[in-house]
Amino acid sequence: MFEYAPAPESVRPQIKEHYGLFIDGEFTDAADGAVFKSVNPSTEEALFTVAEAGEADVQAAVAAARRAQESVWGPMSGAERGKYLFRIARLLQERAREFAVAESLDNGKPIKETRDFDVPTAAQHFFYHAGWADKLAYAGLGADPRPLGVIGQVIPWNFPLLMLSWKIAPALACGNTVVLKPAETTPLTALMFAELCQEAELPPGVVNILPGAGATGAALVDSAVDKVAFTGSTAVGRAIAKSIAGSKKKLTLELGGKAANIVFDDAPIDQAVEGIVNGIFFNQGHVCCAGSRLLVQESVADDVLERLKARVETLRVGDPLDKNTDIGAINSAEQLSRIQALAATGGDEGAEVWQPACELPERGFWFRPTVFTGVQQSMRIAKEEIFGPVLSVLTFRTPDEAIAKANNTPYGLSAGVWTEKGSKILWAAERLRAGVVWANTFNQFDAASPFGGLKESGYGREGGRQGLEAYLDV
Amino acid sequence: MSEHADRLRVKKTYKLYVGGKFPRSESGRSYPVSSPDGAELANAALASRKDGRDAVAAARKAQRPWAGQTAYLRGQILYRAAEMLEGRAGQFAEELADATGAEAHEALGTVEAAIDRLVHYAGWTDKYTSVLGGANPVAGPYFNHTTPEPLGVIAIVAPQDDPLLGLIDAVAPAIATGNTVVVLASEAKPLPALSFGEVLATSDLPGGVVNLLSGKAAEVAPHLAAHADVNGLDLGGVADAGLAASLEAAAAETLKVVRRPGRTGTSLDLLRQWTEYKTVWHPAGMAATAGGGY
């Protein structure tokens, strides 16, 4: 096996020492002066400090968004709104490398992924939704669908810029204005996006960015917004749904998952192994739709596992800014300890653990790719979302058993099916209780393709024509 | 009428409709139902928490087979229900007039509207999937397709003052899309709904697809809202804002889709309400047969 020489990314973005809140088109410090710092998870070094929004800041941002919606953005023609969004898409493409490096630094994910996936897909989301702005009458949601007003949006740390684009692009295209809270560990690209909004001459108040933690998010949910859009944990999603009960606020939720990736005995095994690896180790497993439960048919289980382990041995874990890195840093110390605690229960409950013999950097937050075999459905590693590079392998004998096991979860976000038989794919896809089914592929995303879950994975869709329903008064 | 004046009329016992059968409440309870002018009409079963759970179990058992039927067949069954209701329009007009105090011709008009509404939804079953779903032009060599799928089991608190047409407006779009339902009929005016169960029972509708309960929303609805095997909650018939808020909060525990009181919409909006989109990806073309990004 050849070793790769280090190939570090040479572009360094201009990261400021301090960022303010972005309210009404201007950067400003928090009313109470609160600040926090953002840490590079691969080195544990502080990257910058940022203002932490409190209740007064939330009120100010929502008021600015309301003014902008009623006086500028709502009355503006769809065609003109669209042109602003096209402009944002183009600026993101122009500054793609800078955003990719910044995202990798703040999040810990490999530059390969931010460069080839996060940033281009975010730009695509703006470009796609820009085109909808003057065509909403054709979306099948009535002749003259109206915006909802001001949207409060709370996003997670796993795909910071991409989740921002999934939230902001459709909301703006539909004529709403937004107040968005990025995750506390990954505010950087949201603040760079705020600068980009200034560069695009977006009218003040249309986009407001409020960094902060849970308290900021709760204040935003409780504020005078017309709708809340949340991506994150099921526990927080449930709390939000409870807190808006009885109000007029609308809600869409994109929550956790425990996706089954089903490999039938007639699957293309080498492709399936690539898909299994992509399914669970993409983005360090920090993916709500990760294929964290491998369901493999008993007759091919030994073969699949042998090839899977051989493939995982070749994954390169380390410096996120190295272009050859496959698996970067875990996003935070808190997430690392959660992964460690849940993974420990696997061994305690009798599953067999396997990890490749890779070296980990001394500083930063790291977790080896991990495969548990002999997993039973009752084990915590088979039931709970780990949100890390940890795969639980279960086996099945019949297709019916595979479907029953796949659906045996309160979640319903995604699923994978591997087989060369077309009718079996359609049979399985129809029975899987999941919002997205990947057949002979995994973890594919696109602005034109609706994404979202069922059951305790939430409700509402993001992307595609169907995603517009979340931001129109229908 | 050739009946003797002294013939004793055979009165109907109004029972629940659960799993295709007509049981009394397992609690053995009933409550008197009167017309608006105070005339006693009948006793209706007073459904309990256990009746609610039985109904959810029946609805769950029926859901997968019902969703698995062809859209054409679901349409024919809804049309059959319209046929059965047409044949009994006179009886329903009378029950409706008794329940609401409406004039006879007005009540008949409502029944006719209800029949036509069933026909309308019968025609939707094999069309909404094409209208709501479709192929998505993704930026890569993939076939990508989105279809609306039923949420599963929907609990419905039916409108209080529109006991037949309002009920059908709530039930028809939910079952047209392959869901099964547990319905709490109008509390004070449950008799037309319970008779509608007889229409459904003679329409080839599989048992358990529609389950009808009579009783108190404040007693039974909280259990349906909290039931982990219910996927959607329609609060259209909950007049008390406090009760509606507490039911919505209970439904949030298992992240049910909730339709708040006062929501209106086109029939397509109602069909969308109880469906969720499933998107399926598959590689297209030899270049895309590799599994992933690594």
Automatic annotation (TrEMBL), chain A:
Active site: E254
Name listed for the protein in its UniProt record: Betaine-aldehyde dehydrogenase
Family label: Belongs to the aldehyde dehydrogenase family.
Keywords recorded for this protein, A-Z: Oxidoreductase
Pfam families (alphabetical): Aldedh (PF00171)
Signal peptide: none
Aldehyde dehydrogenase domain sequence ranges: 29-473
PROSITE patterns: ALDEHYDE_DEHYDR_GLU
A GO molecular-function annotation: oxidoreductase activity, acting on the aldehyde or oxo group of donors, NAD or NADP as acceptor
From TrEMBL, chain B:
Keywords linked to the UniProt accession: Oxidoreductase
Any one Pfam family match given in the protein's UniProt record, by short name: Aldedh
Molecular-function GO terms, alphabetical: oxidoreductase activity
InterPro entries: Ald_DH/histidinol_DH (IPR016161), Ald_DH_N (IPR016162), Aldehyde_DH_dom (IPR015590)
Aldehyde dehydrogenase domain segment(s): 26-247
Coiled coil region boundaries: none
Name of the protein described by the UniProt record: Aldehyde dehydrogenase
Organism: Glycomyces algeriensis
